[in-house]
């Protein structure tokens, strides 16, 4: 197929063609008398490197081969072949399925050996197919279980639905719950906006406080609810908002090591999805709080650090994502005071404190507002 023909294809058509090309490669290997195999980056922590140029996690140079020269390898390739056939047919029929459904569907395949022993196994195979095909699972029409992540703010967009296109204003046309981010945010077209910055918020309680207090309207802010560790769709739409609309992105989480990793996944990607970091991560994102310094300055209600928190903080001191003067200073302070705090701890100073004082002051110091 020529580059011109590929360029005129839809995302779904490209995904289907890549799947067919993978299957054809297995066939060609058989036809040549070769043992079928599939080469992948080695998916271990030791082969994940922090790319200093792009500032995201990527796979290193080490590879591993799935080969049919062993029973175990042959089973893996059999599962891959059945999954490729299922996904290609799904795209032909313009249907979709969830990762969980794929696991159960495999029990009905006509080869017992092709079935998955666990959902972790089927999830990993879908990730393998993403890597070797260069196509995301969203374009395979594979969906995760609903994440429920939402956004609220002065953004007008057009989305594709099964009933056609619809235009939505993410303040005027939605309820207090906001606009739910679809599984594949690349189906969204940004039409117009009055956004000055994007604020990604870890917890639902804090997201609700910001909306109830009108923070999105007062500061022309788009509030993105991360809902804990953010789903791929949430990270993808955040990246698009930054790249396509040239908007600053700030991340507001609890003040503990696990929440700092939530920021890290938004900004620099995660080890699990290293093959998609340049598609999902926003290296320009900045951390607004809760900082360990805030715990001291505002005398916030706290919990003591558990041993697991201390270990995680010490690990972050060795993590390239946190090897900056700012993070080293904050983490060392937290280890010294041995305390952590939630976003909602700011309510100890009143329900309006976070929107009237804390965020305006912090964002002002950062030059965001």
From TrEMBL:
Answer whether the UniProt record assigns the keyword GTP-binding to this protein.
Answer: no
Instruction: Give the catalytic activity.
Output: ATP-dependent breakage, passage and rejoining of double-stranded DNA
In this protein, which residues make up the domain named Topoisomerase 6 subunit A/Spo11 TOPRIM? Answer: 197-363
The cross-references to Pfam families, in alphabetical order and at most eight, read:
TOP6A-Spo11_Toprim (PF21180), Topo_VI_alpha (PF20768), TP6A_N (PF04406)
Residue sites binding Mg(2+) per the record:
202, 254
Which residues are in the Spo11/DNA topoisomerase VI subunit A N-terminal domain? 75-141
What is an annotated GO biological process for this record, any one? DNA topological change
InterPro entries named among the record's database cross-references: Spo11/TopoVI_A (IPR002815), Spo11/TopoVI_A_N (IPR013049), Spo11/TopoVI_A_sf (IPR036078), Topo_VI_alpha (IPR049333), TopoVI_A (IPR004085), TOPRIM_Topo6A/Spo11 (IPR034136), WH-like_DNA-bd_sf (IPR036388)
| Top-level division of the source organism's lineage | Archaea
The record places the active site at: 104
Q: Which part of the chain is the Type II DNA topoisomerase VI subunit A all-beta domain?
A: 145-194
Q: Which CDD domains match?
A: TOPRIM_TopoIIB_SPO
Q: Which SUPFAM superfamilies match?
A: DNA topoisomerase IV, alpha subunit (SSF56726)
Query: How would you classify this enzyme at the top EC level?
Result: isomerase
Cited function: Relaxes both positive and negative superturns and exhibits a strong decatenase activity.
NCBIfam families referenced in this protein's UniProt entry, alphabetically: PRK04342.1-1
Quaternary assembly: Homodimer. Heterotetramer of two Top6A and two Top6B chains.
| Similarity remark | Belongs to the TOP6A family.
Question: What is this protein's name?
Answer: Type 2 DNA topoisomerase 6 subunit A
